Amino acid sequence: MQWWCSANSGAWSWTWRPYLGVWLFVIMLVATYGWLVRRSRTPVPKVYPARFGAGILLLWVALDWPVGPLGASYLLSLHMGQYLLIGLLAPLLLLLGIPGSAYGALRRRPGFYRLVETVTHPVMAFLVFNAVLTLSHWPAVVDTLRVSQAGSFVLDLSWLLGGVVFWWPLVVPVPDRSGFQPLARLAYLGLNIVIVRPPMLILFYSQFPAYRVYELAPPLLPGASPVDDQQLAAGIMKLGSSWIFFAAMGVILRRWHLQSVMESARPSPS
Predict the structure, then answer these.
(1) What's the burial of 265, exposed, middle or buried (CB within 10 Å: 0-12/13-18/19+)?
(2) For 58-67, b where at least 16 C-beta lie within 10 A, e where not — what string?
(3) Could you write out the DSSP letters of every residue in 167-235?
């Protein structure tokens, strides 16, 4: 949420005012988490706050100085690194940090529960995630939103919410996804590895800068042109996200294997 950045701002320097929005957003998330934990009224193992805190830390690093302003309007490659933090890693850790008992509040709000159930269905979550990823990296969208504080807020928030929707059917116990078997979960992640999205092709194969907001920024990488930077960004988009999905697939495979071992070790009924 680099709400203070401008591609044509020239030399940049630190001041506390632009970062107030980031700090307030982080404080709001922490306060909401504390409220959810208190409402659960059950002891919360320390691993949950540790996971949530790690997600908050990643958000803070991605949004605050110096990563925030550099990724917002100077280096497209760093912008893509921000996406991995805000759109993939932070949402996963935030969801893993919420104890299962805290999700019970959803059932007490039938309308909102049905909405969550629909949006987080694996097919819908796949479509939402890829739509957000594609649209938020489309040149016209980036050039329109990145030049204003409100636009940057919309862009970064869309990444975060898209990531939450993507990981929800994999890690959240509500609503019940018992039919979403390990093989289907592996396919869900694997398809996101092999799919080639239009923005990545544009960034990698274009002979000209795809985004004006980064083309007009003062050069920060010695000897690197905006085209070099955007090709690096395409590699980070594809390889970075793929490694995250591969790691998640490894966790699913391990749990699947352990479950099979436990089931085979059970004595058969006589």
Answers:
(1) exposed
(2) bbbebbbbeb
(3) HHHHH--SS--TTS-HHHHHHHHHHHHH---HHHHHHHH-SS-S-HHHHSSPP-STT--HHHHHHHHHH
The helix or strand, by DSSP H or E, that contains position 106, with its residue range, turns out to be: none
pLDDT tens per residue across all 270 residues of the chain: 443 444 444 444 444 455 677 888 899 999 999 888 887 777 889 999 999 999 999 999 999 888 888 888 889 999 999 999 999 999 999 999 999 888 877 777 888 889 999 999 999 999 999 999 999 999 999 999 988 878 888 999 999 999 999 999 999 999 988 899 999 999 999 999 999 899 999 999 988 999 998 888 777 777 678 899 999 999 999 999 999 999 999 999 999 988 888 877 777 655
Which is nearest to 192 in space by CA: 55, 118, 93, 87? Answer: 87
Amino acid at 73: S
Contact 73, 7 (CB under 8 A): yes
Structure tokens at 225: 């042109």
